[in-house]
Amino acid sequence: MSDVALFSLDGEDVAFEPGETILQAARRAGRYIPHLCWHPEFAPHGSCRVCTVRAGGRMAAACTMKAAPGLEVESNTEELNAQRKTLLQMLFVEGNHFCPSCEKSGNCLLQATAYEMGMEGPHFEEFYPARPLDASHPDILLDFDRCILCELCVRASREVDGKNVFAIAGHGIGTHLVVNSESGLLCDTDMALTDRAASICPVGVILPKRRGFVIPIGQRRYDEGTAADADRQEAS
Amino acid sequence: MTAYPRQPNSLVQLLREAQAKHGWLPRPLLARLAGELGLSLAHVEGVASFYRFFHLQPVGRYRLLFSDNITDRMLGNQALMADLCARLGVQPGVMRSDGRVSVATASCTGLGDQGPALLVNHHQVVTRLDAQRVARIAELVEADVPPAQWPAEWSVVDDNIRRADVLLGSTLAPGEALAAASARGAEGTLEEVKRSNLRGRGGAGFATGTKWDLCRQAPGEQRVVVCNADEGEPGTFKDRVLLTRHADLVFEGMTVAALAIGATQGFVYLRGEYRYLLDHLEAVLQRRRHANLLGANILGRAGFDFDITIHLGAGAYVCGEESALIESLEGQRGTPRIRPPFPVEQGYLGRPTSVNNVETFCAAAHIALRGSTWWAGLGTPKSTGTKIHSISGDCARPGLYEYPFGTRVETMLVDCGARDTQAVQVGGPSGSCLSVSEFGRRICFEDVPTAGALMVFDRSRDMFEVARNFAQFFAHESCGFCTPCRVGTELVVRRMDKLAAGRGSRHDVEVLYELDKLMHGATHCGLGGAACNPLRDTIAKFRPSYERRLKSLHFVPGFDLDAELSEARAATGRDDAGAHLESSHE
């Protein structure tokens, strides 16, 4: 074997190619660093912070930090997983997440990651924001209550579909997803069910209509495996 | 005035101009602008709604914003705002039904030495508000007198220079430092700045010469010099005075940087709160162009081409972070970028870009003229030169104080006439809070670093309320991009409010500790990382001011059942608040 660049993830060597981030290399090696806004098809975004690791002694997002030879990365530690749990709890309380009544339950990366991190409750007081849903489109429902601002739909619509259906607006705790049409409604866009943006959402914001519970609870993506599995680290 | 090209990069400037004309930004206007620039409406909406000074809903023709820094509060801004609202019959943050007026608060407007301050129509300021001025403002608004015709003395902004050293105490002739730099050549100038050990005045203290060198070395066709005049750190107002009195020096420093780096393009990113300085700054730029101190072949030096454009911010503290500032210059939401690449490698439009503080450029101009040895002889070995401090709060003589680095806090307190001081906040809310036992410490990068603010609190002040004001500031200014800052700053405010309402418990203080720890390591940029600094310092040093608010050492819910039942009572015509507390088995 020729010289392969290696870094250490929780004490085990991971090979990487020049330019790869810690998360890219770890993901390719089948290792699990929890993440929500990162997806292998897109450039790193760095907003959810769930992939935060300790690299060379300093906290860094594994999705944005480049791997380097000999770098020592800690990820699966009690401290970092506790921090991830807190970040997940923050995402849960800032939106309206009612898993038992959500069509995405069992296919939801937020829910699955929360299970992985041992989250048993919201911990913080819930914000209960008022976010009207958009059922205007014939084939697609938008339930903004569940948005975690990962911008995967924004990126997929722009970069894959070439449509720019979504954007982020507002600031601070009022940051929110908006739809690109004069009415602000999805029915006035050219979004189609076949768009990558229609299937990329890791939570239950963008849902196909008339397919509710076609796959029963108990047979869903994270019923049959976990978010830590090499083939289930993203929701789609 | 600058005519901004009708391109996507100018979006923030075009939105600002459109709002200045129409008062607010109606959706059809955003749609027209989007169409013209080839952008999506949602993108334009996203950019416009990012900035606190852009209005996507109608606002009053008179938009009155009270600066709401802790120093404004200490001077009574809250009572004055309540008085004005009562006189005008308006609720804070809600436009009056006739569309005449809106009253709200803004983050610190950079007038901490002459507050309470009011920002009028994002264009004009009123300093030293008092009950008489408030009463008269209400009359002028009701009589529909345009702000430009309000008493001129209200808008006088004093420089209040109390202690001048090399930067504030001398004036260079325009072109003097530049001629010296030109004689030394680009590399010679760069070496001189490196040897001076000048460090950035924005707070982080990165070596200026190294930054310029990295920018000079980075591959790229065109290089950019940016002056960060987004002086948003609450309690800081030194750059406002430098831009007022020493604008030539600032531009001279930028041009020296352009020579050293090989940059052709320059920007000043001026915070929107300083809009009233724009005409003056444009006039100085124009004068410098006529004097061949800007433009092509500057000072007759072939190929030395450089010019400066001023961009105005629109009320977003985070744009003081250099990569967010560059995003804003490009007409985007001011979200900090992923770094690396750093701006010196890929900045404005991907070009190598050096972003430096206003005061840094002033120092660089002096160094170009008087040399590195002179500069390095001032201050301390690791913090060379002088530093300008904006001093405000409980002191007899608030204003600007320039000291060599290494000066002790107690010296500054004596000079500004502070008495019975219990704490000073150095470097603004994202800096550090010092208690009496630490007043012997020295302001320098080796000990207590600063971005230039020093707020003084005497023993009558409640340090919990100071920390709560800062927590509200950070929540208001979070860009909303990353989870820990977006949600964490809001959770901190809610906990602090709960404590302030007397419903806190020891558990709430523990949660604040937990949030502080998380936000120090997990955020995307320094804003979130610093957001808990005041909390950490005040809990550690002024714990009694927290504990005095604890109703019980045990858990008390934040949920007020009686308040929640008020809607149901109203709907059923009941007026028996607290009825649920009575036993039903009496």
CATH class of the largest domain in chain B: Alpha Beta
> What overall form of chain A do the CA principal axes indicate?
globular
Number of H- or I-type helical stretches of chain B: 24
3D shape of chain B: globular
Integer-rounded radius of gyration of chain B: 25 Å
Count of discrete structural domains of chain B? 5
H/E topology pattern of chain A: EEHEEEHHEHEEE
* Multimeric status of the protein: heterodimer
Poorly predicted tracts of residues of chain A: none
Q: Total number of β-strand segments of chain B?
A: 18
CATH architecture of the largest domain in chain A: 2-Layer Sandwich
Q: Strand pairing plus helix content of chain A: what structural class?
A: alpha+beta
Care to describe what's here?
The complex is a heterodimer of chains A (236) and B (586). With 236 residues, chain A is an alpha+beta fold. In chain A, 17% of the residues lie in helices and 14% in strands. Chain A folds into 2 domains: 6-76, Ubiquitin-like (UB roll), CATH 3.10.20; 84-208, Alpha-Beta Plaits (2-Layer Sandwich). In chain A, the strands form 3 sheets. A 5-stranded mixed β-sheet of chain A has the order 2-1-5-3-4, with helices on one face. A two-stranded antiparallel ribbon of chain A has the order 6-9. In chain A, strand 3 (52-55) and strand 4 (58-61) form a beta hairpin. Chain B has 5 domains: 8-48, no CATH class; 62-158, Glutaredoxin (3-Layer(aba) Sandwich); 162-376, NADH-ubiquinone oxidoreductase 51kDa subunit (Rossmann fold, 3-Layer(aba) Sandwich), CATH 3.40.50; 386-461, Ubiquitin-like (UB roll) (Roll), CATH 3.10.20.600; 464-552, de novo design (two linked rop proteins) (Up-down Bundle), CATH 1.20.1440.230. Chain B is of the alpha/beta class and 586 residues long. Chain B has a 6-stranded mixed β-sheet. A 4-stranded mixed β-sheet of chain B has the order 2-1-3-4, with helices on one face. Chain B has a 4-stranded parallel β-sheet with strand order 8-7-6-9, with helices on both faces. The A-B interface holds A 44, 46-50, 52, 59, 61, 64, 66, 83, 86-87, 90-91, 93-94, 124-125, 127, 148-149, 164-175, 178-182 and B 27, 31, 40-43, 45-46, 49-52, 316, 333, 338, 340, 475-484, 486-491, 494, 511, 514, 518, 521-524, 558-559.
